[in-house]
């Protein structure tokens, strides 16, 4: 092979290598510009009953007066009492208003907010029940599990199983209660209550 032919082949090889390098560089830059970083989204789809694994539609409730918001499954808590700020239940009370008209398989959630002069929950540590110290939206809170009596429809007395979370903010005592007549029903809803609680936010 002539020297000139070898030179031409060498030049052609160098050109091909340069073209490949340029193509790889351009492709690499365009790829970097279009990299899709993984996006983590949190969706509240916890089931109430582990046997059914049913998911629910959630909505946000906002209370401007008492300065808080939370989300809850409106497709499960189908009834909201229009006479109070926040009281929802898994069915509409039959025969009147209030929990005494609910059934054995119902659960209900109520939030009350009252003014307070104390900045501590220590006075509630001596109250009956099981006490657990937690935080709600970064604020120290106290979870109390207890039972109480309630006069039901027809004058009969029922035992109410209750999880009550107390927190103090803005010189107000916030009480978030999750209740049921049936302990096993309440237990089946514990994870759901925790998820509702995790959405609670103080808005001021």
How would you summarize the topology of this molecule?
Blueprint (H helix, E strand, L loop, with lengths): L2 H31 L24 E6 L4 E6 L5 E2 L5 E4 L17 E9 L14 E7 L2 E13 L5 E13 L2 E9 L2 H6 L1 H9 L2 E2 L2
Antiparallel strand pairs: 1-2, 2-10, 3-4, 4-5, 5-9, 6-7, 7-8, 8-9
Brief rundown of the structure:
This protein is an alpha+beta fold and 204 residues long. It is built from 3 helices and 10 strands. The protein is 23% helix and 35% strand.
Would you give an account of this structure?
With 204 residues, the chain is α+β, with helices and mostly antiparallel strands. The chain folds into two domains: 1-39; 58-202, Mog1/PsbP, alpha/beta/alpha sandwich (Protein Transport Mog1p, Chain A, 3-Layer(aba) Sandwich), CATH 3.40.1000.10. Helices cover 23% and strands 35% of the residues. The chain contains three helices and ten strands, in the order αβββββββββααβ. The protein has helices at residues 3-33, 183-188, 190-198; strands at 58-63, 68-73, 79-80, 86-89, 107-115, 130-136, 139-151, 157-169, 172-180, 201-202. A seven-stranded antiparallel β-sheet has the order 3-4-5-9-8-7-6. It has a three-stranded antiparallel β-sheet with strand order 1-2-10. A hairpin with a 2-residue loop joins strand 8 (157-169) and strand 9 (172-180). The radius of gyration is 30 Å and the shape is elongated. The model is unreliable at 24-53 (pLDDT under 50).
